[in-house]
Amino acid sequence: MSSGPVLVVGASRGIGAELVRQYLAEGRRVHATVRDTASPGEIAAAGGDLILHQLDVRDQARAAELATELSTARLAVAIHNAGINRGHSAAELQEVNAAAPIHLVEELLNAGAVASGAVVAIMTSQMGARQGSTSRLGDYGESKAALNDEFRRRAHDWGQRGVIAVVIHPGWVRTDMGGDSAPLGVGESVTGIRNLVAGLTRADHGRFWTWDGREHPW
Fold first, then answer.
1. How far is CA 212 from CA 151, 161, 172, in A?
2. How far is residue 172 from each of residues 154, 182, 200, 211, measured CA to CA in Å?
3. What is the dihedral of CA 131, 137, 142, 143, to 10 degrees?
4. Which domains does the chain have, with CATH numbers?
5. Which pLDDT tens digit goes with each residue over 118-154?
6. Are the C-beta atoms of 197 and 119 separated by less than 8 Å?
7. How confident is the model over 37-70, as pLDDT tens digits?
8. Which of 119, 143, 121 is nearest to 130 (CA)?
9. CB distance 98 to 146 below 8 Å
10. How far apart are CA 55 and CA 33, in angstroms?
11. 97/16 Cα distance (integer angstroms)
12. Are 157 and 174 in contact (CB under 8 A)?
């Protein structure tokens, strides 16, 4: 599966855009979702074997349509990177960060878009880890904790359906979301994520990983 097509959900900037660039540089076919294909952000001039798809992850009907469009793609890697943080209500954070990734993965699996043995990775955050937390996680952290909880509930079923599914903390990265003071560059984070994804086996399914290959507590 190492040379098969890739899906990056939430690809217009930051980590998503860099995932697209690096997978294209490998010579991979990349399916990338953006909210507006007429304004695809940082990947506008990416070149390579890039196929753009319109998707607002809150639109469940469109998510189902996208899964149907990809039903013959035989994706080797599907990475759900879309997420929001500051400037949104708790309800919006839950909808985008927790509910939408689970829904889209279900649609992709139901449509047969993901090949057997493929990796399905959802971006989470260490801020959503409940273990060791002694205070409230905050609205963003709670949305990621809810994502992690639902992922763990679905992981056995997803594994039975032939995929290696994980959640990944990408690190504190210098992006619009992470801010300029973040210690980790986008390229370094994404290189680590790609290396992690490439090395995953069925024994790694259902677990919480960091960008640099360490297992993270829930």
1. 21, 27, 12
2. 27, 6, 22, 10
3. -110
4. 6-210 (3.40.50.720)
5. 999 999 999 999 987 656 789 999 999 999 999 999 9
6. yes
7. 999 999 999 989 999 999 999 999 999 999 999 9
8. 143
9. yes
10. 6
11. 15
12. no
Query: What is the SS3 string spanning the chain?
Result: CCCCCEEEECCCCHHHHHHHHHHHHCCCCEEEEECCCCCCHHHCCCCCCEEEEECCCCCHHHHHHHHHHCCCCCEEEEEECCCCCCCCCHHHHHHHHHHHHHHHHHHHHHHCCEEEEEEEEEECCHHHCCCCCCCCCHHHHHHHHHHHHHHHHHHHHHHHCCCEEEEEECCCECCCCCCCCCCECHHHHHHHHHHHHHHCCHHHCCCEEECCCCECCC
The token pair at 194 is 């790609």
| CA gap 79, 180 in Å, rounded | 24
Amino acid (1-letter code) at residue 46:
A
Structure tokens at 190: 């994404």
Q: Which residues pair with 9 in a beta bridge?
A: 33, 80
Check the CA dihedral 158-159-164-167 and report its sign: positive
